[in-house]
Amino acid sequence: MTERLLVLTRHGESEWNLKNLFTGWKDPGLTPKGVDEARRAGRQLKALGIGFDIAFTSALGRAQHTCELMLEEIGQPNLATIKDWRLNERDYGDLSGLNKAETAEKYGAEQVHIWRRSYDVPPPAGESLKDTVARVLPYYVGEILPRAMRGERVLVAAHGNSLRALVMVLDGLDAETIPSMELKTGVPLVYRLNADTTVATKQILEG
Fold this sequence. Notes:
Layout (H helix, E strand, L loop, with lengths): L4 E6 L4 H4 L13 H16 L6 E4 L3 H14 L6 E3 L16 H8 L1 H9 L11 H21 L4 E5 L1 H11 L17 E6 L5 E6 L3
Parallel strand pairs: 1-4, 2-3, 2-4
Antiparallel strand pairs: 1-5, 5-6
Helix pairs in contact: 2-3, 4-5, 6-7
């Protein structure tokens, strides 16, 4: 029986997550806690007997480092890994690098909430979640999903918003629901797919 395994993991805590800054396409590294989260995620998967045939990650260092640490813990440090910008975090444009609380003071909490949690309103010079979905989903359908459907065991280490795009499809969520869904750093989502690409089972490896 074909396994059709797909594991999604948001990168471990980054230096800018810790400082409460908008990150987007900026490239801060992982904190020591983020390194620990990535290693723990790998150990959790290994404990379940899960290994991979291929890994995908973004063009950003925090996701790539997370992927590397997970694969080290699983015992697959040399696994083929495809890096692509289309799995990058949502681009926060002019907000990138700004403190979230200070940005709320400058623009108003309501406006910042709209930028962060609406589906189709982008921040200045940035991407909305809808824009992010528009680049992530074709990549998923064209490059990632076919491998899982062939029976390859697939790991995707990426970002909160690029993974929201995938969870939106996998979990059947709508534009009203997905912006408020939180994906914790370093927590693997283990999906097993049916022959028609729908989800057979989903497991969240917390703690």
